[in-house]
Amino acid sequence: MARALHIGVLGAMPEEIGSDLGHLQQLKSEQHGDLTIHHGTWGEGIRLSLAWSGWGKVSSARAATRLLSSAPDIDLLLFTGVAGGADPSLKQWDVVLAHAVVQHDMDSRPLFPRFTLPALNRAQLDPDSSWLTWASTALAEADDAGELDGFGTPSTGLIATGDRFIGDADVLDALREALPGLRAVEMEGAAVAQVAEQEGIPWLVLRVISDGADASAAQSFGNFIKLYDRRAWSLLQALLSRVDQAPER
Fold it and tell me: Which of 50, 85, 212, 240 could form a disulfide with 90 if both were Cys (CB 3.0 to 4.6 A apart)?
């Protein structure tokens, strides 16, 4: 009998996964300092381990490392939550699945080119193509079936991570110039991706646009996150309900 698929899910805040864990069965928790990791099952044949990491690259990398060590048989590590829109065509509630991530504040010049991660000698990290195709197809099917009510049309794109909440149009313009094709900015995803890459675990970063990363970003984010808590689980459910199409492990 095939082993149940095991997905690790991280978000910076409870609202970004959905703070109500009532959808999980066989729920148990373990404590690591101030980090709580929850383990449970959903539906038939899906095991979930999830945690709220806190903001920023260090907190998210620490949470990813703890999560993987507490559940070493994880098949996929997913970071999800909200992000600022870098592409002007994106609107609030639009869904962006990263086809690549980059740490926009990594700069080791002149030793390495800007954005390059010395540990991996790469600037952009790309998720495993089979997992990316699965997630992209699942989201498109869910959208067509009306399961993503309240969300925008899912798309893929480049997402940039850095230890800065971007609410300045000039800063955003500079990032767009340096990173052609940039679609969204946030504070955790690429750090989690780096941990997963170095640990040999497939990963995905899934974001929902909360604001325009401009002067009104802080207010837009604050208002948005309260609503997002009620909808976050439906986005995850769109993926989880289609694990029969997931890549073989």
Answer: 85
pLDDT in tens, 73-93: 999 999 999 999 999 999 999
DSSP the chain: -PPPEEEEEEESSGGGT-S--TT-EEEEEEEETTEEEEEEEETTTEEEEEEE--SSHHHHHHHHHHHHHH-TT-SEEEEEEEEEE-STT--TT-EEEEEEEEETT---TTTS-TT-BTTTTBSEE---HHHHHHHHHHHHHHHHTTTTTTS--EEEEEEEE-SS----HHHHHHHHHHSTTEEEEESSHHHHHHHHHHHT--EEEEEEEEE-SSTTHHHHHHHHHHHHHHHHHHHHHHHHTTGGGSPP-
Instruction: Write down the catalytic residue from 15, 75, 94, 211.
Output: 211
pTM > 0.90: yes
> Six-digit token pair at 121?
């000698």
Interval 142-190: pLDDT, tens: 999 999 988 999 999 999 999 998 888 899 999 999 999 999 999 999 9
> Is 94 in the active site?
no
**Active site includes 30?**
no
Q: Which of 16, 75, 94, 186 is catalytic?
A: 16
